[in-house]
């Protein structure tokens, strides 16, 4: 959106503007200090709410007409004026004035200038307190829907890899040490699960966002004969905020949205960290698409995973925004306090940052290539089959703790010889425990270890194949 902003002309000269332009100026006998105007304005960033502000005002005007507060003709005059203003803002030809403080008063003043005193009737039965809360809820609702779509795109990018990567086995890690073998598709679907929980959280948050505050006015409601449900229906809100004091002071919905975005960012950061490691020469598990990497100004050989590093780094901003919001509300009494003006920049930044990260992550995931030959060359290192061997021994009647100790000793023997478990002799296995026979070799080696898994949710090939099918169905891929 292209916007124009202009300071109060007197502000740059250090002199008060002639005449009080404030909607609340009647009780004041002088003008606002220029420094205060600059310090307290929010239009430089809340102008992003113009679409929501116009939409809310149109619904409010038509409701006032339906209850007889306005005539139908007056309401349509207001609607036409607001739509004209919206077109100007979208075209970048509307001049936002700093001395009018915020997006709401800029639009209202422009409306009055266009249609005269009829425009002054629009604010009947509402306050800027419930107006901004309505606009912000509408904006966040749209933000939730955008994030949900982008998360779905990222899930589809992971599921889209599953056909080509179906036979690839990766070393799974705990403590960044090799632990057990897992199918690559099991890895991809693990991220699908994380991002699905993010989608579920956003959907749940949307229910609480989608409650209409408009009509609760400043803090106590209004004596005007208004119909809040009429507005809720027009703006597609699921219900009405029930308490006017709560409505005026509430920013739970914004903080919950910021929290949900923070978890999205944290999950993206986990992916970024993993793939940054995997793309190193030391791991060499994955090749990132060069279009999403950058080079070095001094070292000509470098292909740096800068996009993934920035996704990891930008998570810090999103976490910081959430913390700022939590601190912002910690000591506020009921009802509205001007501190709440500080919420929007934090939420806008988190939404912009997470949406950009999601778009890029989808492209990187879709375009990355597993380095299968290199993965396979080192797959038998790290004794990934040790736990499978332990469970084989348990099936022969040995208690788990005893089996754990026996296999630990066998791993130590193999480490001393610098060989995998599968290369130990039958005599060495039987020396560890008499019940071990030739069947031990049926569970050794990563491929046979993978084939031995059975439990629901495991990396068992048939279980993973079932999950891939379910995810394709769920995501309609």
Automatic annotation (TrEMBL):
Annotated EC: 4.3.2.1
UniProt enzyme class: lyase
User: What is the official name of this protein in its record?
Assistant: Argininosuccinate lyase
The gene from which this protein is expressed is: argH
Region span, Disordered: 1-27
Q: Which reaction does it catalyse?
A: 2-(N(omega)-L-arginino)succinate = fumarate + L-arginine
Where does this polypeptide localize? Cytoplasm
Q: Mind telling me which PANTHER family this protein's record contains?
A: ARGININOSUCCINATE LYASE
Which part of the chain is the Argininosuccinate lyase C-terminal domain? 383-451
Q: One of this protein's GO BP terms?
A: L-arginine biosynthetic process via ornithine
Q: Does the keyword Amino-acid biosynthesis apply?
A: yes
Locate the Fumarate lyase N-terminal domain: which residues? 28-320
Q: Which Pfam families match?
A: ASL_C2, Lyase_1
User: Where is the sequence biased in composition, kind Polar residues?
Assistant: 1-15
> Where does it mainly reside?
cytoplasm
What pathway does the UniProt record associate with this protein? Amino-acid biosynthesis; L-arginine biosynthesis; L-arginine from L-ornithine and carbamoyl phosphate: step 3/3
The protein's matches in InterPro entries, at most eight in alphabetical order, are given as: Arg_succ_lyase_C (IPR029419), Argininosuccinate_lyase (IPR009049), Fumarase/histidase_N (IPR024083), Fumarate_lyase_CS (IPR020557), Fumarate_lyase_fam (IPR000362), Fumarate_lyase_N (IPR022761), L-Aspartase-like (IPR008948)
Hey, which family's this protein in? Belongs to the lyase 1 family. Argininosuccinate lyase subfamily.
Kindly list the GO molecular function terms attached to this UniProt entry: argininosuccinate lyase activity
Q: Which UniProt keywords apply?
A: Amino-acid biosynthesis, Arginine biosynthesis, Cytoplasm, Lyase
Q: Give the record's GO CC terms.
A: cytosol
Species name for this entry?
Adhaeretor mobilis
